[in-house]
Amino acid sequence: MDYQLDLNWPDFIERYWQKRPVILKHAFKNFVDPISPDELAGLAMESEVDSRLVSHNEGKWQVGHGPFQEYDHLGEHNWSLLVQAVNHWHQPASALMIPFRALPDWRIDDLMVSFSVPGGGVGPHFDQYDVFIIQGLGRRRWRVGEKASLKQHCPHPDLLQVEPFDAIIDEEMEPGDVLYIPPGFPHEGYALENALNYSVGFRAPSSRELISGFADFVLQRELGGLRYSDPQVPKRNHPADILPQEVDALRDMMLSMLNQPETFNHWFGEFISQSRHELDLAPPEPPYQADEIVDALHQGDVLTRAGGLRVLRVANEVYVNGEKLDSPQHQALEALASHLTLNAEHFADALDDPGFLVLLTALVNSGYWYFED
Length: 373
Ligand code: SIN
Ligand code: CO
Known about the structure:
Layout: H1 9-15, E1 22-24, H2 37-43, E2 51-57, E3 60-65, E4 79-83, H3 86-89, H4 91-94, E5 108-116, E6 131-135, E7 140-145, E8 167-173, E9 178-181, E10 187-191, E11 195-202, H5 207-220, H6 244-258, H7 261-272, H8 290-298, E12 303-305, E13 311-314, E14 317-320, E15 323-324, H9 330-338, E16 341-342, H10 344-347, H11 354-365, E17 369-371
Antiparallel strand pairs: 1-9, 2-3, 2-4, 4-5, 5-11, 6-9, 6-11, 7-8, 7-10, 12-16, 12-17, 13-14, 14-15
Helix pairs in contact: 8-11
């Protein structure tokens, strides 16, 4: 299924992106759910899949974490089943994320899908990330409040709820409507009837994550062996003092590592191309030989990228799931990064390069790209 999102992106970015929440009515025309509530419930029974059941009764909130064995004990009201990274596990659902590639791939995270019965929701809360919530099946009332330093109060430690808030958006969403919420705006959605919601979530690294990720890279590769030296050690009045120029020199030592573009780009490519959720990889058995892949492509078969696999380009180098692809076939690498499905034409001459074929064969045999049967 091809999902067409009716959205003027330049206008949206100018007015709303990272700034204001907005409801985009009928943004998807004739919306068709890519997944059924039963399929979603089935996914939440699998141990690799990250899921939660949230219910409330007279102001008391409960959260259970999957995998779930059964759902028979649940009533007809006030609960919601939420499944993370559904784009990794369910190919038709992953198609919903494609229109959001108008925004950079590196900022996109995953597709969370929720099924709620009437009254079901996770309560008032805010998130650290941008999210587009698409209404599928059913109707749900969404309220969004002004960004404020709302006190987090904890009726349940897993929910990070906030106190009740005044609404700046209060609408019933219907199938195909989209609600965009930037980080920090409190929101809550209550289903009015059985409802499916699709949250296209974004990610943005914090300084803490960046520093810690860079430090891991430095340690792994044993970089940064240069040691502080002071052949002209300056005099000071108190032996205990560390002089401002010494502090500057130490900081410069650290910054000079960050300022090496090759090191920084290589690290960031590896860092940001890692998925935050488990991938559903099915390495082919038996593994392919390079010539079998070339034959299949020449016969018109198509290679499809595994759902949720991150393929990103930094300074003309392509990174896949935390690894740099080593090949001079830049056009073929760019095709791997740009297209979710690839045919022989995308690879062009690279299919005659034995070095590139070794790389492509390894990628296919890892399950990163696969031929649909
Ligand atoms: C949902 O309930 O589908 C979305 C939860 C959220 O607001 O993050
Ligand atoms: Co939220």
